[in-house]
Amino acid sequence: MANIAKIFTNRAQYMLQVAVKQSQIVPRFYSAAANFEFIKTELAGANKNVAVITLNRPKALNALCNGLMKELSSVLDDYEKDKNVAAIIITGSEKAFAAGADIKEMQPNTYPHCILSNFLNDWTRVAKCQKPIIAAVNGYALGGGCELAMMCDIIYAGDKAKFGQPEIALGTIPGAGGTQRLTRVVGKSKAMEMCLTGNMISAEEAEKMGLVSKVVPADKLVSEAIKLGEKIGSHSNLIVQLCKESVNTAYETTLQEGLKFERRTFHATFSTDDRKEGMTAFVEKRPAKFSNN
C-alpha cells in the first residue's frame, strides 16, 4: 500500500510539472489554421480561448473515418500545446454529431488486419487530452459517435439528440469504449440493454441516466457549450488540468487509492502561484488574477 501511495504521489507531481510546462509554451501557428478535409476549427468566446472543432462530413452524417480521426488528433495536439486555449468543444451538425464509424471503410477489414494494425487504437486521442473537452451533441450520436462523445469530459445535448450503440445489428460489438465507458456511466442494466438491442435513447433519457450533463434547444447548443468553456477558462488552466486528472482517476482506481491521489494532488496545488493568488483574492474580497503558474 505504501508503494501504491508513492506511485500516486509521483504521478501527481509529474502531472503538475507537465501542466506548468504547457502553460509556458509560446503560441505558434498550428494546424487549426490549415484547410482540413473532414473538420472545421475556430476560436470562440469573448477572449477567443475556447476552441470549437466541428466534424464536417455532412453527406456521411459525420461518420468517423480514419482521415477524420487523424485530423482530429492533429488539431488536439496543437490546441493542447496552445496556452491561450482553455477548453475545447467538439460538435457536428444539427442532424448528426456523428452517426457512427465509417462502415464502408471498415467492411473489408479482417481479423488479422485488425490485430496487426491495432485497429482503433489511435482513436483514443480525445480521451487522452489534458485540457477539458466538451461534446456538444445534436442529432445522432451512434456507435463510434456515442463513443467519441463519451471520450469527452462533459456532454451537452440538443433536445433532439439521439444516443445509441447499434453495432450488434452489424454483427459486431462496440470497439472504442461503448461497452466500457457506457457501463461506468449508466450502470450494467442500461448499458446491456443499449448494447444488446441497439436501441437509441433520447437526450432526455440520456440526461436522466447521467450520460448527459445538460439538454438545451438545438439552436442554442453550441453557444451554451461555449459559455461553459468560458466559465472553465476563467479559472487557472493549470489547476483545471490537475482537477480533470483527479476526476478521471476515480474511474481507474479504488475509492481509497483515488482519495490518496486526490489528496496528494490537492497538496501539490500549494506549490503553485495560482493557489496562493486564489486564496489571497478570496481573503481580500477581489477577483483572482491567475497566471497559470
UniProtKB/TrEMBL annotation:
Q: Supply the EC number(s).
A: 4.2.1.17
User: What organism, scientifically named, is this protein from?
Assistant: Glossina austeni (Savannah tsetse fly)
Signal sequence region: none
- Show the Gene3D superfamilies listed in the entry: 2-enoyl-CoA Hydratase, Chain A, domain 1 (3.90.226.10), Lyase 2-enoyl-coa Hydratase, Chain A, domain 2 (1.10.12.10)
| Recorded family membership | Belongs to the enoyl-CoA hydratase/isomerase family.
Q: Report the GO molecular function annotations.
A: enoyl-CoA hydratase activity
The keyword Lipid metabolism appears for this protein: yes
Entry-linked PANTHER family: ENOYL-COA HYDRATASE, MITOCHONDRIAL (PTHR11941:SF54), ENOYL-COA HYDRATASE-RELATED (PTHR11941)
Which CDD domains does the UniProt record give?
Answer: crotonase-like
EC category: lyase
Keywords of the record, alphabetical order, are: Fatty acid metabolism, Lipid metabolism, Lyase
> Does the entry feature the keyword Lipid metabolism, yes or no?
yes
An example GO CC term for this entry is: mitochondrion
Q: What is this protein called?
A: Probable enoyl-CoA hydratase, mitochondrial
